[in-house]
Design a protein that fits this description.
Protein name: Magnesium transporter
Structural class: alpha+beta
GO molecular function: magnesium ion transmembrane transporter activity
Family: Belongs to the CorA metal ion transporter (MIT) (TC 1.A.35.5) family.
Helix content: 55-70%
GO cellular component, one term: membrane
Subcellular location: Membrane
Length: about 425
Amino acid sequence: MGKNQFSIRRRKKGMPPLPTPPVDNGEPQNSISMPVGTVKASKKKVGGARLWMRFDRWGQSELNEWDKNAIIKRAGIPTRDLRILGPIFSHSSSILAREKAMVVNLEFIRAIITAEEVLLLDPLRQEVLPFVDQLRQQLPHKSLLKVNGTCAEQDDNEGHFPNAGHWLPVPEAVEGLQAELPFEFQVLEIALEVVCTFLDSSVADLERDAYPVLDELAMNVSTKNLEQVRSLKSNLTRLLARVQKVRDEIEHLLDDNEDMAQLYLTRKWIQNQQPETLLGTIVSNSPVPAAPNLRRLNSARSRSGSLVSNHFNYYDVEDLEMLLEAYFMQLEGTRNKILSVREYIDDTEDYVNIQLDNQRNELIQLQLTLTIASFAIAMETLIAGWFGMNIPCTLYHTEGLFWPFVLCLTIGCIMLFLVILGYARWKKLLGS
């Protein structure tokens, strides 16, 4: 069967024709184009990279653009932690402990802290710049594994801990851990200090703007002053919520020793090191024969293991507890300042309401007084209406009777007004 007959039979049966093979004319063929959805997905992946600043324990920093996969691989954290650092949870406060990292989301500071470095998200924002400056200034002077300002030299008789390409003796490293806070807590302390300072300054600005506005409202209740107090109260509510979130997160950590113990990243890193890794340089750098070297290796291993176990208790969280308690008390003081401003606002509102109630009572008393006067005048009008009727009366023809009659009628109305007014005062319907 020929090729043309096969094509005709396929068309008769309603089947689509076979695709025509490309003609090889010696010219390069065009490659298959990528679907539009795939191009968009690739663009999103490229655009998903965000700006991060990396700080090591010596204060050295560098700017990088990393996507989620790079951050997850570098810090060893789950994907949900990056969502916490995203814009959806930008106003939440959380300090999460992971196996190798600490995820910090405090106000405008969103960072991932490990035992060796800090990854700071969006470091060029105006609010984050003070935190960056503090890291550059304080980290070189508060380095965890610095001993007397210089790195300790390697000693063949002791175990060593690796530190950014250097080795520190185990006893000196443990003494350094006891003398200073671990690297992750140094960064956490700087973050809490910057956040607490920012919140405290915001409260100070609120106090400076609040008291004059409230005093002005107490003296003059107007629409403009009421609008200013309304705006002030909304700002106070938002600021109180922000302070409360940070305070509650610190309080949550203080209430759980297990969570605080998980935040000791440096301690977990040291405890997870194998003795062979810690003492490997002894064998490689020692010219002593094998048997004495093994004996010294075993003694060094036992000495370093006992030293680490003695100095590193898993539930020893006193350093972190003291650190968190200090900033918890500071946040508590900031919260009390906000509550005092809110109490002053409530007192001013109560005073204004009392003023308005007093004015309302005065208006009611005035209205009652005018009602009594209207009743007395109505009685005089009633009598005048009676004499205004077209009914024959002998009094109409009496000379000199009009003015005495009007005078007596007016005096009678005044006496009626005074009697009713005295009765209202006797019933305490009117003020004195």
